[in-house]
Fold:
Amino acid sequence: MSVSEFFAMGGYAFFVWGSYGVTAAFILIELLLVMNKKRSLLHSIFRAAKLNRE
Amino acid sequence: MKIFTKAYWLQWSSPKTFYPTAGKMIPWFMISGLILTIIGLYYSFFVAPTDYQQGESYRIMFIHVPAAWMSMWLYFVMCIYASIGLIWRTRLSDMMAGAIAPTGAIFTFIALWTGSLWGKPTWGTYWVWDARLTSELILLFLYFGFIALRAAIDDPQRAARASALLALVGVINLPIIYFSVKWWNTLHQGASISIDSAPTMAATMFTAMLLMTFAFWMYSIGIALMRVRNEILEKEKNASWVQELLRDGK
Amino acid sequence: MIALLRWVIWRDMVLAMRRKSEVLTALLFFVIVVSLFPLGVGPEKNTLAIIAPGVLWVAALLASMLSLNRLFADDYHDGTLEQLVISSQPLAVIVFGKIMSHWFLTGLPLVLISPVLGMQLGLDSDSIVILLLTLLIGTPVLSLIGAVGAGLTLGVRGGGVLLSLLILPLYIPVLIFGSGAVESARTGLGVEAHFSILGAFLVAAMLLAPIGAAAALRISLD
Structure:
């Protein structure tokens, strides 16, 4: 099976890759959002602690 | 034995002990999720044979079925945590219920999305109003309602208890989704796997589906723990242990 | 317990009679929404008869939801609800009484006026009888389920929109079997199965919803 044949998925490329792509995108976005949230939380806590010390 | 005492179990429900423990567990869940995904994808695309009826389009099944399973399983787990929080008023279980909901909603959406993309080549339509699709759509709305109610109430205790009650009211939808293909004779095919009969599909297909299910499961646990940790940080940002934790290394 | 139930119903009825406009609003909403459909879809008689069961049921659903906000709101604002919650009387019974009077005032008028609207949309007389019966069984279920949502969103900002988000998904089964019965009657199929499922919904909702709504009120007033 060649690479282009693999990506063609027997003519169902849109449906198969549409499913897998959207799934991957959702999971990656979810991960990024949660990680981003943590970074901004740590940042704000850090800044508040610094302000307290000064 | 230490594990039979109540104090042993209660210490895990304290955010202070839970936060570092969860932090150590998250990489394990995420890495095993990633490894399972890689093996699962390999099985889905290279090991499982082409279906003689549906051609390559059936490969959508390897994310559709696991996502649908997870959407229901996560709602069930969310209800368990919600009722534990409702009965014993443990803060951590409320947080867990809240942390599972967005992931559950995402898997419900993925199940609907992949289902409609699978429906087009096999049934000739993206959407039909059959019992299983409709009840899965209701499940998505239930997740949205749970998240919205939690966000709308300011008092965290009331938010947790009110949304827990809502989750329990919505739990009647789960058996409806599960049995919908049996109760109504509709377009959606019945379960491909049941306990009383041998799998009607090739063993490699079954393996691929199981691998993807476990991959999604591990990921769900990992992301839920990450969300709980965020919520703990947000609520306890003025507690001394958080400050110490930050001083030791950001 | 019966005396308590009677007292709650009597009290809510008297209070509602002093503000007749609120009772009429839900009814007028129902009539107007249904009347909009022939204007939007076009006056083609066959088309209207096909969509009539769904239109009438969806309109009934929205009208009953619209009035749910009022179910506990007044008693909540003047403090009566708090007194009822801490009183020694069983809260579920009080809530059941309130739901019943809510249905008498908003659900029952819809049911009674529905034959007229059914005729307007070109339903035949047999289907209209079925429509009347399904609404008679179905609208109490709507009030009962809605009470849980009304209790949960009590005093929450943006409560009205939130309430619809919480409650409409739970209304869907009632909608499916209610309009489904009229649809099968119209096409000459049996309606027994639809009626037994609607009846089962009613019994289950009557047993569980007051308890759920009472729990919701306790959470909201905690």
